[in-house]
Amino acid sequence: MLIAIxxxxxxxxxxxxAGVLQQRAATxxxxxxxxxxxxxxxxxxxxxxxxxxxxxxxxYGFQSVALAHGPLAxxxxxxxxxxxxAIPLSVRLYGTRLRTREWLGAVAVAAxxxxxxxxxxxxxxxxxAGPEEWTLxxxxxxAATTxxxxxxxRMSGPARASVMAAAAGIVMGIQxxxxxxxxxxxxxxxxxxxxxxQTYLLVVASILGLLLIQSAFQAGPLSASMPVIDTVEPVVAxxxxxxxxxxxxxxxxxxxxVTLLGGALLLTGIWLLDTSPMxxxxxxxxHREQTAR
Length: 293
Description:
The protein has 13 helices and no strands. The chain has helices spanning 2-26, 37-43, 47-69, 72-79, 82-92, 100-120, 131-152, 157-186, 190-194, 197-219, 222-244, 253-274, 277-291. The protein is globular, with a radius of gyration of 18 Å.
């Protein structure tokens, strides 16, 4: 379990650096390129974005190690601590520091999710779902993602970034489930991985998730997208862990109450960051600098 925790924290740190670099590169891309392959092809020419991709690859390596030694419902919530690295780093790049409001927001998101997950006390198990359960889970995720993206078309600025980040969180939550399944198959044999449909869907989910994340980064400040991704992704992952992997969580009244309290704290943190004038001003400054190049 210690390896799972350390691996998750290392992954969180690298995901934070990756997010900061990718968001800064994506900020300068035109709005009409959102959810288009052209966004990725243009970003692929930016060294800053490629450096972010390199960090993300390293982060997925640590995440895979963590998933090999701990439950999905433990690993994903720990990765949300990337907020405590990413937001201060993104602000520091502009020669300033976080104020009380922004620190409270970042800590509230991370602490709220940690409290909720600790109260739920998820326990590790093995994949038990059959084709019907997998089909229903994938169909539900696809429907939810489509609906959220439809809503995002009616929005702009930070609100659009947050809604697109929710879609990215759904896809990346599914991607985490597929990654956990692939890791478990690696422990059996390479043939098991090559012949598994989950392996190929993992590739599709990873590419779609990457596009959605970059589109969210492009639409608004990091504070409007990363907290939402870090919230939705583990919620989806834990829900799938319970339904597909038979991972158990506590359901007694006290655990439920504390979980809801953690959720309220988390949402408060998202609101503090999403409405931060300082973070919004820094994003506008970054947009002007990137588009001027």
